[in-house]
């Protein structure tokens, strides 16, 4: 006898076209992504469609703003990256697993994945299915309990990956590779001295004929003759690059401006060209790249290999070129290490230079900061390089490491002594550990999915050869290789996570707060440096004037914030005196009032000026009356800075830490701006040097 059961409630759709009910009382996550930072900047309409328009769509579907969360951390990341490599997608999945979201809104499926292996979107499908999460796009809503929706979503993701592989990589890049392999221009950088021949045809004996140099390099004579001169001059200087750099540094420009009809976009990056009045200057690395570029003798390189030694017209004689190449290139034309390259003797140290902040120090106003040893005191110093160095390497400022290290170390210990809320650091460490566990869990899921697919491929490949077409078998082999490579990368990432004990080290340091404060001097240097690396995000060292330095510390602990202090250097920066400055001393030192000379030399103190006058054998008239209140050890530049920073005139140190709010303006003057006059003499006296 047949029995009938009452029809139960089915919360999930059974067909592809059944109506879907959105759970607007639960959270909704909006995921947005662009492949590169340039796309984020240049295609703002696309970014807005993935953010603003989707928010409007969510509201139209019934969600209020309190339940909408926007994930934009991956706006400059590729869809080919794994889930564990994308902060935004990883956070989205984590909150899905917590049950915070029941709906994900995305502009297109390819915003989530462009995965050739299928590993990433299969994991995402599984997570959404287990937690009853819908994925909504403007053209379809996916419920992964419905097999048709799973199939459709996979097809969309596969389509995106196929487009990337077949059209972008194979077709577009393949076409460019074929053009480049034939010795013709396909979009690479152009060595200065050449332009691209854009003429497709030419007249030969009154008839139109194909142009043999079409899309090839041809000499651009306004620059080609300078390239020849550079090679010639390098030979004349005996293969010495520094004298050549010094000569070029004295010139207003090396290459004149391009003619108006020349597209300059392909020239600038290759040799680090910098536009100046009248033309372009070249950097030292750019100059060395120029002197070793085989394109100047007609060679054509494609994918690292020489495809032609007579591809286009050479503009440099081979003897001159090989003279420079053999002295400057670290490798030979065949890719072997160049044993003839002229090098410099380097003396290695048995022990590293002891500098506490070596791994975290930098500069905001200057260039790179590195550790060296003073030639005068033989003690460690921090050296600030000039920003945007071109041909001649210069340092901007230098100061002993010991003073900077001691100031920052004392402040670090003070912070640790004042830390009472130890639970907060336990919470912080727990958050770090939680994030590591989430990444590790995600990696394990990916490895499991890879193993499953690899087993399936091996089973398929074990079938008799006549069962699978040759192209299909090759496709399976290629996918297996790709999966194998991805699994290896994931296992390396997993090992890195397991060995990364930053949270554990942090907790160990905080558990030793009292001992650190009392026994700092007894702690081995290597442990002090590890502590500084663990607690400091960045230290910025900058020269504000010839006598004043600024230290700015950005602590990793957000409660410590960003702090700064100023240091006075009694010795000053010892900048080299220029001919112009020496002429001012010659003209004014004899009888001009002190304030008049200081106004002409605003970056020099009176002590420095008198010492330089002695070196120049220039004497000063006795009993000259001065009304200038500036101390002999300070310059007008120093005084201007001190007023702006709120430092008293008679302070020779300012070791008081302050929280950073607004950056002080630079004391350097704009073109045409004048230094303020010396302040009038007041009743109090200043210490003499």
From TrEMBL:
Residues 191-334 form the Recombinase domain. InterPro entries: DNA_bind_recomb_sf (IPR038109), DNA_bind_recombinase_dom (IPR011109), Resolv_N (IPR006119), Resolvase-like_N_sf (IPR036162), SSR_resolvase (IPR050639). GO terms for molecular function: DNA binding; DNA strand exchange activity. Residues 473-500 form a coiled coil. It comes from the Bacteria. SUPFAM superfamilies: Resolvase-like (SSF53041). Keywords: Coiled coil, DNA recombination, DNA-binding. The keyword Hydrolase does not apply. PROSITE patterns: RECOMBINASE_DNA_BIND. This is Recombinase domain-containing protein. It comes from Dictyobacter kobayashii. The lineage of its organism: Bacteria, Bacillati, Chloroflexota, Ktedonobacteria, Ktedonobacterales.
